[in-house]
Structure formats: C-alpha cells, structure tokens
From TrEMBL, chain A:
It is found in: Cell envelope. GO terms for cellular component: cell envelope. The keyword Ligase does not apply. Belongs to the bacterial solute-binding protein 2 family. The keyword Signal applies. Residues 1-29 form the signal peptide. GO terms for molecular function: carbohydrate binding. It comes from Bauldia litoralis. Gene3D superfamilies: 3.40.50.2300. Coiled coil: none annotated. This is Monosaccharide ABC transporter substrate-binding protein, CUT2 family (TC 3.A.1.2.-).
UniProtKB/TrEMBL annotation, chain B:
Keywords: Cell membrane, Membrane, Transmembrane, Transmembrane helix. The lineage of its organism: Bacteria, Pseudomonadati, Pseudomonadota, Alphaproteobacteria, Hyphomicrobiales. It comes from Bauldia litoralis. The keyword Membrane applies. This is Ribose transport system permease protein. It is found in: Cell membrane. One of its GO terms (cellular component) is plasma membrane.
C-alpha cells in the first residue's frame, strides 16, 4: 500500500511559480549589479548568499553579490556601500545595523541614482530607502506567544527572553507578548522579561539563572531573539525538561533538533532567503529605471517606516518541520509574483 | 579583635565581605538562591569568566595589556570546533592543539611587542582585529555544531552542585598561585612589571618575560574558549566578543596594579565570583531589564568602594 505525500505539494507550486517567473523575466536581461549587504557577520544572513545566486540566475541580472561588512559597525557598512558604488554597483539591499545612521549614506546613493531597499530590518523614517521588506516583528512575537499559550493549554506563567533593549524592535516584541498575554484575561501571567541576551555566554548565564530561580513556576517561555532561542533550546535539553513549553525564533539546527526531540514546541520562522531573493528582484527593476514604487500601494505602517512589506512568518513545529522550507519558498514565490503589480509602477 | 584586624588587612577581604553579604541578602530575599541547581548555575557561569580574568591578569602583571583576549578566544573556539567537526581530530588531541593555538597567538603578540618596542596595547589592538578576521574568514559567521558528546557532557554534567567544568579553573588557579608565588619566571614577571629598569639591572630579560606573559595570556584565553565551547555545546564565532570588559574588571577589582608588578589570583577569583553573584541575583530578583546595567555598575562600584574603605582603615592603602 502506498501513501501520497502531500507535504511536497506547496513546494512544487512554489518552485513552479519561481521557475515560471524566471522564464517570463528571462527575456529581459539586465546589466545591473546588485549588492546584498547585512549589518555584519551573522548566521541569520547565510541564506542571502544562495538567494543572491538564485536571483541572478532566475532574473538574468548581470550580478547579485552578497557582501558582508567585517564587523557590526555603521562606519564599516557605509564604507563598504561607498566602495561598491564606486565599483559600479547599481542598487543595494541593506540590513540597517543602525536604523537612523544608515540614512545619510542611503540619501547619498539615491542622489547618485543608486536605489536602496531595507531588507530584514527597516531604516527609520524619513528615509530614502525605496521600501522595507522584513519580518513583521510585532506580528511574529504575537503569533508566537499565542502558539505558546495554546501549547500550555491556555493557562500558566510565561517568560519572555528578549534581545537587545536598545533595538526598537525589542520594544515592539515586548508589547506583542504583553498584548497576547492580556487577551487571556488573567489565565496566563507574564512572570518576567529577561533582556539583553544577544551574546551566547550572557544568554547562557541569564537563562540558566532564570531556570534555577523559577523552573517550577514557569509553564512556558518565548524567545524573540536568535541567540536566546538557541541557548534556551540547549538548556531545556540539558535539563531534560519537556514540561516547560518553549517557542523560539529562526531555524538554527539546535532549535530544529530540539523540536524533533520534543524539548521545544515550535519556532517562528522568518524568511531570510525570500528577503534576499525578492529584494534583489525589486532592486533590479528599480535600477533599470523603468519602475518606481507606488505611493498608494498596500504598505504596512510600522513605528519605523510607512513603507513596510511583510516577508512572511510561520510557526515551525513537529507537524511541518520536514516541509517548512518548501512552505517558505511558496510564500516567497507568492510575494515575488505579485510584487511588481502590487508595489510598483512600471513603464 | 586581632583576628578581625588580621582578616581586614588581607587585600581581598573587602570582596569576601561583599560576597558574603550579597549571598545572605539573596538567600533571604529569594528562596531559590540556595538551591543545588542555582549554585551549580553560578559555579558554571563563573568558569569561563575566571580564566578570562586570569588571561588579562598575567599581562597586567608585566605592565602590559592584552586587548586581543576575546579575539584569541573566538579564534581558538572555532579552530577547536572546526578541527573536530571538519577534520575529525579526536577530542584528546584537539584540546592541546587548541591551547597551543592560543599560546601561538600570545607568542605573536609577545614577540611583536618585545621586538618592536611598540606598546602592547597597540599591538594587541591590531592583532585582535586580525584574529577576529581569521575567525570570520573561516566560519563566515556560521558556528560548528557537531561537538563530541563527551565534550558537551563535560560542559553540562555535575556532581550535586559541582559542575565538572569547574575542574579546569580550579587546577589553573592553583597552578597560577604557585607560578606567581614560588617559581622564578613568575617572580621575574612581576619584577619586570614593578620596575623594568631594576629588573634589567638584575639580569632579567625584559623581552623574554614580556613574551612569556603574552604566551601565558593566550594559553589561558584558549582554555577559556575550550570551556566556552563545552558550555555552549557548539563552537560559535561570537565566543569572546564580550570578554574584554570582564577581562579588565576582574583583575582590577581583585587588586591588580594597572601599572604592573602586582596581581592577586585570589582577588581576581573573588571579583569574578562577585560579578557572577550580582548577575545571578538580578535575574533571581526579577530586576526591571531596563535597570540591570545601572545596578550592575552601581553594585560593582559599591564593592570596590568597600575594599578601598577597608584598605584606608587598616592602613594597607
């Protein structure tokens, strides 16, 4: 007796859609050179390298390159941008490590006719970034907390493991978790928010201390940063504790393995590949000079920018752990397929 | 009371009093503080920090600074993880090789400092960038995940509240105390730090002593990196990135002279315990996350002031 594996179906649609778009745009070969530039070295951006290679091939762009500043410093990122502009690059997909500080360089590039877009994180308005394509951090934290509350049976005490306090997105995530908790009408209590857990050793020390102090009172934990997500997954495995439900973020191997082994209930997937792939596609159209961004597109307004596009988020759990990458590709294909008509005016 | 007087004369007694007072306060305020698991957590978090403090302490002893402590730690961590995951080097061989890489980095720092006559601060500032660059060039910021089960178990397992990870810092602490108190190179190191000219006149090779201090510093940073990999269960390129502040804070709070010539192994140990205690206490006490940094700084200042007050009162200033 054979069974039909349906998990590959969305992937097949996604791959087909990407291929179809590629064929459709293949005839319009572009001589643009596009650079995708993260704020600094970080494993989150690793899929951008493949996204750049795929976008170059699929959309027949002269070059799409992944260029990483040596460190997480604004001056290194801006020096890299200026150097690439001097080398003839025509558009830039940028993760703004400093959401305000990046704007003067973006304006300088724009005045030279070189468009930029914010990818994976937004620049603070007013900005000359054409758009911001990233995870809706509020929505992701809200959905993640809802998922956690569901895994806990709708009641109990939770803890929020947050990232850098100076990051404005952390404030949004804190609000999202608080809102989801308030909606339970007292069934769920937010015991504590542990912040500044963005370094491995600090995260290990703080989360260990938290578990030591309140292990028995905690029913669930949600991490909204990459590092605390990895560290908490590892610590719950070490403790051998499957009672505490945990929702992480991103798809680090340690988190995925912990989901498979039952120590983590789920993780909120972001779409770094899609951010790089769609970003390169849109920047190519902007750099060609044939397209501009629509003023009246269905932009999402966030505290940082009035031109936000959600790159998609989803929960990875035991049910979809084998197929989530295909699901993300389907989301990517969907956004990319509609991007030009929805957000751009082209001649 | 002669006993109390004798106790107060000891340079690190102010830190010891602060630790005892802090522990009693936390035990009263938070019932979970004295649990076996929390003591294990504190002891475990103290292991890497102590070796990081020692790595800076030995260069301070000779009147130098090592800005590259964290960069050496990061490079050793990914070399250690990489040689086991990518090259299949067995753990028993990888550990000494990792320490040798750290010592080699220290040798480069030492030779460049001693031979060029350029201040170690400048040399290690430059090599820190170079070591971090090699780290990122090799890993492209992607960690090595597949560490041997024995190493991960060593980083996690415990005997009641005693983490196995603590074995290495205990051995290193004992050896360092012996080194500075009883060995000729140890005494020479402090002599060069205290008065380089007098040391020259006594026939001590200043160059050789500076190189020795940097090699020791690199080796200690490497041991810290190996412990960090064991503790985290993966070789992360970001290991060491936030070591610099602690590396200076611990020996200086512990009584080391910034100008060289005097270090305290016990004082540095107590300073790391104090910092770990404060950080642990703030999580246990559910301190508002926006005030954690302020309180950490204020409590460390209070502990340093207590020790200073003790020194003035006992005439050991």
């Amino acid at each position: 007796m054979t069974s039909v594996n349906r998990s590959g179906f969305p992937a097949a649609i996604g791959v087909f859609a990407i291929a179809a778009t590629a064929l459709a745009t293949g005839a319009l070969a572009s001589d643009n050179k596009i650079a995708l530039i993260p704020g600094g070295p970080h494993p989150y951006f690793a899929p951008w390298e493949q996204a750049a290679a795929d976008a170059q091939k699929d959309f027949d762009i002269a070059a799409v390159d992944f260029k990483v500043p040596a460190e997480w410093k604004l001056n290194l990122q801006t020096e890299l941008l200026e150097s690439l502009a001097a080398q003839g690059y025509s558009a830039f997909g940028i993760f703004p490590g400093d959401s305000v500080g990046i704007n003067s360089t973006v304006t300088e590039l724009q005045s030279a006719g070189l468009p930029s877009a914010a990818l994976a994180g937004c620049a603070q308005d007013p900005t000359d970034m054409a758009f911001c394509l990233g995870t809706d951090v509020y929505n992701s934290a809200y959905i993640g907390t809802k998922e956690l509350i569901k895994a806990m049976g709708g009641k109990g005490n939770i803890v929020h493991l947050a990232g850098l306090l100076v990051d404005p997105n952390t404030t949004l995530r804190v609000k999202a978790v608080e809102t989801a908790v308030e909606e339970t009408n007292g069934e769920v209590t937010l015991l504590q928010t542990v912040a500044d857990t963005d370094a491995q050793e600090a995260a290990d020390q703080k989360i260990s201390a938290l578990l030591a102090a309140q292990k028995d009172e905690i029913g669930g934990m949600i991490a909204t940063g990459y590092i605390p997500s990895v560290v908490a997954s590892k610590l719950l495995r070490t403790l051998g504790d499957k009672r505490i439900k945990f929702i992480g973020i991103d798809d680090d191997q340690i988190v995925l393995k912990a989901i498979e082994d039952g120590f983590v209930a789920g993780t909120m997937a972001q779409n770094p590949y899609g951010q790089g792939y769609i970003g390169a596609y849109a920047l190519d159209l902007l750099a060609s000079g044939d397209c501009t961004m629509k003023e009246d597109a269905p932009w999402i307004e966030t505290p940082q920018t009035a031109r936000f596009i959600d790159s998609g988020t989803m929960v990875i759990n035991l049910d979809n752990i084998a197929s989530y990458k295909d699901d993300l590709k389907a989301i990517t294909a969907d956004i990319q397929g509609k991007f030009k008509d929805t957000y751009m005016t082209c001649s | 009371m002669p006993f109390l007087r004798r106790l107060l004369i000891v340079e690190w007694s102010g830190l010891a009093v602060a630790i005892v007072l802090g522990s009693v306060l936390l035990a009263v305020l938070t019932p979970n503080f004295m649990t076996e698991y929390n003591i294990y957590v504190m002891l475990r978090s103290f292991c890497v920090g102590l070796l990081v403090g020692f790595a800076q302490m030995v260069t301070l002893g000779v009147g130098q600074m090592n800005i590259s402590v964290g960069a050496i730690g990061g490079l050793v961590a990914i070399s250690f993880g990489g040689m086991m995951e990518a090259l299949g080097v067995p753990l028993v061989l990888a550990v000494p090789l990792a320490i040798a890489i750290g010592a080699l980095c220290g040798l480069i720092n030492g030779v460049l400092t001693a031979r060029t006559g350029i201040n170690g601060f400048i040399i290690t500032l430059a090599t820190a960038s170079a070591f971090t660059g090699i780290n990122l060039g090799i890993t492209e910021a992607i960690p090595f995940y597949n560490m041997p089960a024995a190493l991960v178990a060593f980083g996690d397992e415990r005997f009641f509240a005693f983490p196995y990870l603590l074995i290495a810092p205990i051995i290193v602490t004992a050896l360092l105390m012996l080194f500075f108190a009883r060995t000729v190179p140890g005494r020479q190191l402090l002599a060069v730090g205290g008065n380089p000219h007098a040391a020259d006149l006594s026939g001590i090779s200043r160059e050789r002593t500076i190189v020795l201090a940097h090699v020791l510093s690199g080796g200690l940073a490497a041991i810290a990196a190996v412990l960090a990999v064991a503790q985290l269960g993966s070789a992360q390129p970001s290991i060491g990135a936030d070591w610099l502040l602690l590396s200076f804070a611990a020996p200086i709070i512990g009584g080391a002279a910034l100008t060289g010539g005097y270090v305290s192994v016990v004082g540095t140990t107590l300073a790391v315990i104090l910092i770990a205690l404060i950080e642990n206490g703030m999580v246990l006490a559910n301190v508002d996350p926006y005030w954690v940094q302020f309180l950490l700084g204020a409590l460390i200042l209070a502990a340093v002031w207590l020790n200073r007050w003790r020194a003035v009162k006992t005439g050991t200033d």
